[in-house]
């Protein structure tokens, strides 16, 4: 039942085994090489462990049944993530080209996959670096005591705090007003917020410096950016576990709810998280693997990377929830203290009368004896579970929940610096893979002249990206980032990943692929891998893609806005998108997905023949 | 004579007590939260502490309302509760039946708030004068925002790094072109000498092809 689409000329486009052995022995190659294996592994680990591991996985884990969520997560990690990972590693290592080159070698019709990967990497890189710019802003502002988000500014009279800050909270105000200066909707652009321009400049300059010589410089940078987060997490774990209420958080995270396993959304969210976590279809992994020696054991790499990703996700989730538990317990305690204070003041009772231990019973007693007075006091119910489930996903986790928790810890500036440094490292290491997925295709597609040195290409890419990402430095930038996050990184990636699987299994040929693996690592992949590549992984991706499109198609497009004049304030209000956003969504999600079939249909045959000739000539040169 | 003085004193104190009552027009409620502020070190509230309060307030009135010499008897306290809260009014030193206006009292308390708090080892939140809002502390502000300093340091390091890396690349490339120039020059001289000698490319190729 091997469906292989005829693919003439494949032998002429790829290097055969003898050429590869000769190249390996003579060490002749114009491509960069990894200085050692650990740089490669650290780069891949950094690429896979990103900011999403900190602020997406713990939320999914907790909201989909806690400890029970780990079951679908690990199953899908092994059935969906690991095969795709090995696929990208092996095809890159075998064909020894970047993403565009690999797909073009397999078939000239598939050039579109490489182009789509490049477009997706570019768009994701734009908004991802904006998140890094925000993290940098918080990092820069952590070097002062007290932290600036611990206090509200006074209004003009000096009589009381600014009303927006008073009604919401200091951290919310600092994030939405001081950092971003958010407008009330995406339609209202509001002009450029210059502190954000400064931070974006810093963010792109850091990436430019670290990647200026390609993997030669980024391979050194990953020693810091990939290892530092683990150290910081260990420090936070020790600190977190010694805080009051930390275990409430960990318990909340891991308490299993087996009923959640029956729901389809749990499995779909787990699948989507695995897919995005591994940064598949960005093109970066293929590129990184192509710099490996030909006999590198990529199967072992895939298994090791999968294990590291899974375990790191649990580690990060634990640390995150100790801090969340601490914050929720603090809020709960202050809520109870406030209620006690109100009761004591209203009834002029001695302070010993009501303590945290007998609060409940005293409240009931007072309610029965003086019910209307108690009603007038407006006692808030204090619910620990509610505090634990507040705002624990996405940017809200890092910039609102965590910053608030840090202000309550002794020695806040140090913890703030460490936390944001860790997020910076996580983000920058992911961006290395991202920029690799943009720069290498630019070279392969001859968009950039071949005579330019690597430094010039990196500099030009960073500069152009900086200019385009000024879109996010507007006052409505927060809404643009959310828009990009929802649409640029979801449907196109799933589509490209699915097509990659089909291309390798049916167009390149699964038999040829298995022989390649045998040549590279010494043994054929076992039946598990073959079944995954041919049936299980494509099926899972197809199901996730279809389900996602169905859900998105049914929902009305709305976004959450920070509007001080709305009724829902201080919570984010839901507002529909203006109609021109549909065009933007088409550019973000539609164009990369459609590039693949459109290229296959409309490609210029003459150009392909020319390219074919150049490839064949080049292979002759290398042989002689 | 004695009886008259005693009678007058009794009348006066009775009047004073009538002047002070909850929700008095020129009076204020005071609330102390000793356990919240001091925890285990909290002292018990007794008549001596009340005496200190009255004297501190008299001090505050004297400092603010210059010219008037307030005595402890001018601070009239009533309605003490277990919470440790009570009402007080201030009578004028010249006329003990007349109450001092509340805005004068408020100004006096605002001016000496810190001294009053310190006398009791309390803060604005734990020694409350209901109706008199504490002045808010202004947030700390800097001449140069600290974040600009950190940004400047970071950009300096980055620019220096980029310049160093670019310079070393340019130097390496110049060295390579110089070396290949030298090699080419060597090869030219070698070829020139070889031309006169035996080495001939076409000969060796033919050798390869014609293997019999």
TrEMBL record, chain A:
Which Gene Ontology terms of cellular component type are present? brush border membrane
Taxonomic source organism: Cynoglossus semilaevis (Tongue sole)
Example of a GO MF term: neutral L-amino acid transmembrane transporter activity
Tell me the compartments it is located in. Membrane
Keyword line:
Membrane, Metal-binding, Sodium, Symport, Transmembrane, Transmembrane helix, Transport
UniProt record, GO biological process: sodium ion transmembrane transport
- Coarsely, its chief localization is membrane
Q: What is this protein called?
A: Transporter
At the top level, the lineage of the source is Eukaryota
Family as reported in the entry's similarity comment: Belongs to the sodium:neurotransmitter symporter (SNF) (TC 2.A.22) family.
Q: Which residues bind Na(+)?
A: 46, 426
Name of the gene encoding the protein in the UniProt record? SLC6A19
From TrEMBL, chain B:
Instruction: List where the protein spans the membrane.
Output: 147-171
Name where it's found. Answer: Cell membrane
- Record keyword Transmembrane helix present: yes
Q: Which InterPro entries match?
A: Collectrin (IPR042944), Collectrin_dom (IPR031588)
* Alphabetic keyword roster: Cell membrane, Glycoprotein, Membrane, Phosphoprotein, Signal, Transmembrane, Transmembrane helix
Q: Where is the signal peptide?
A: 1-16
| A GO CC annotation given for this chain | extracellular exosome
Query: What domain of life does the native source organism fall in?
Result: Eukaryota
Primary localization: membrane
Boundaries of each Collectrin-like domain copy? 24-212
| Recorded topology in the membrane | Single-pass type I membrane protein
GO BP, one annotated term: positive regulation of amino acid transport
Pfam families, from UniProt? Collectrin
Instruction: Write the protein's name.
Output: Collectrin, amino acid transport regulator
């Amino acid at each position: 039942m091997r469906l292989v689409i005829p693919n003439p000329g494949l032998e002429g486009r790829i290097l055969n085994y003898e050429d590869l052995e000769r190249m390996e022995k003579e060490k002749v190659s114009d491509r960069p090489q990894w200085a050692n294996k650990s740089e490669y592994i650290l780069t891949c680990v950094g690429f896979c462990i990103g900011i999403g591991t900190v602020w997406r996985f713990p939320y999914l884990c907790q909201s989909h049944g806690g400890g029970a969520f780990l079951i679908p997560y690990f199953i899908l990690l092994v059935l969906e993530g690991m095969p795709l990972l090995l696929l990208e590693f092996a095809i890159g290592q075998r064909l020894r080209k970047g993403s565009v080159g690999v797909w073009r070698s397999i078939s000239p019709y598939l050039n579109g996959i490489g182009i789509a990967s490049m477009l997706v990497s570019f768009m994701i890189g734009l908004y991802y670096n904006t998140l890094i710019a925000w993290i940098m802003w918080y990092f820069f502002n952590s070097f002062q005591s007290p932290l600036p988000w611990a206090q509200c500014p006074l209004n003009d009279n000096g009589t009381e705090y600014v009303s927006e800050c008073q009604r919401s909270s200091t951290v919310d105000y600092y994030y939405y007003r001081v950092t971003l200066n958010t407008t009330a909707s995406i339609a209202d652009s509001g002009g450029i917020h210059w502190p954000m321009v400064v931070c974006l400049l810093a963010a792109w300059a850091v990436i430019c410096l670290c990647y200026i010589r390609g993997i030669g410089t980024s391979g050194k940078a990953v020693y810091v950016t990939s290892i530092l987060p683990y150290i910081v997490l260990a420090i936070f774990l020790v600190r977190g576990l010694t805080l009051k209420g930390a275990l409430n958080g960990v318990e909340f995270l891991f308490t299993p709810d087996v009923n959640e396993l029956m729901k389809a959304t749990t499995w779909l969210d787990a699948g989507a998280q695995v897919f995005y976590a591994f940064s598949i279809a960005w093109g970066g992994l293929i590129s990184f693997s192509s710099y490996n020696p030909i006999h590198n054991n990529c199967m072992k790499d895939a298994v090791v990377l999968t294990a590291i990703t899974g375990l790191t996700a649990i580690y990060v989730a634990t640390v995150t929830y100790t801090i969340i538990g601490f914050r929720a317990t603090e809020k709960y305690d202050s809520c109870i203290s406030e209620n006690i204070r109100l009761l004591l003041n209203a009834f002029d009772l001695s302070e010993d009368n009501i303590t945290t231990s007998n609060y409940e019973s005293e409240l009931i007693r007072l309610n029965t004896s003086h019910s209307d007075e108690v009603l007038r006091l407006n006692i808030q119910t204090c619910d620990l579970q509610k505090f634990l489930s507040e705002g624990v996903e996405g940017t809200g986790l890092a910039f609102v929940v965590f910053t608030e928790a840090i202000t309550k810890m002794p020695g806040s500036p140090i913890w703030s610096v460490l936390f944001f440094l860790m997020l910076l490292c996580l983000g920058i290491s992911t961006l290395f893979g991202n920029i690799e997925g943009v720069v290498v295709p630019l070279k392969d597609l001859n968009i950039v002249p071949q005579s330019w040195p690597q430094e010039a290409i990196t500099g030009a890419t960073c500069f152009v990206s900086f200019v385009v990402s000024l879109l996010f430095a507007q006052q409505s930038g927060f809404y643009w980032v959310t828009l990009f996050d929802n649409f640029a990184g979801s449907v196109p990636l799933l589509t490209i990943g699915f097509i990659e699987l089909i291309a390798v299994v049916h167009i390149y040929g699964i038999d040829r692929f298995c022989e390649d693996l045998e040549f590279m690592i010494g043994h054929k992949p076992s039946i598990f891998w073959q079944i995954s590549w041919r049936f299980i992984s494509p099926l899972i991706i197809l199901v996730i893609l279809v389900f996602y499109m169905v859900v998105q198609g049914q929902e009305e497009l709305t976004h959450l806005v920070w509007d001080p004049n709305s009724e829902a304030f201080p919570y984010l209000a839901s507002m529909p998108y203006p109609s021109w956003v549909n065009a933007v969504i088409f550019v973000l999600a539609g164009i990369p997905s459609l590039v693949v079939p459109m290229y296959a249909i409309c490609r210029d045959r003459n150009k392909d023949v020319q390219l074919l000739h150049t490839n064949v000539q080049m292979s002759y040169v290398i042989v002689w | 004579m004695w009886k008259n003085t005693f009678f007058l004193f009794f009348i006066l104190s009775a009047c004073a007590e009538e002047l002070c009552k909850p929700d008095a027009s020129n009076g204020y409620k005071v609330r102390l939260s000793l356990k919240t502020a001091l925890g285990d070190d909290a002292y018990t509230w007794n008549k001596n502490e009340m005496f200190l309060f009255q004297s501190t307030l008299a001090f505050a009135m004297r400092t603010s309302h210059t010219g008037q010499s307030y005595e402890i008897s001018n601070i009239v306290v009533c309605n003490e509760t277990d919470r440790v809260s009570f009402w007080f009014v201030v009578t004028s030193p010249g006329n003990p039946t007349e109450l001092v206006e509340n805005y004068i009292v408020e100004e006096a308390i605002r001016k000496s708030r810190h001294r009053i708090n310190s006398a009791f080892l309390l803060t604005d939140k734990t020694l409350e004068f209901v109706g008199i809002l504490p002045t808010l502390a202004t947030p700390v502000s800097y001449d140069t925002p600290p974040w600009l300093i950190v940004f400047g340091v970071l950009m300096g390091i980055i620019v220096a790094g980029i310049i160093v890396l670019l310079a070393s690349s340019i130097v390496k490339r110049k060295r390579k072109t110089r070396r290949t120039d030298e090699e080419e020059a060597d090869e030219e001289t070698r070829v020139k000498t070889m031309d006169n000698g035996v080495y001939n490319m076409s000969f060796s190729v033919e050798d390869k092809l014609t293997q019999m």
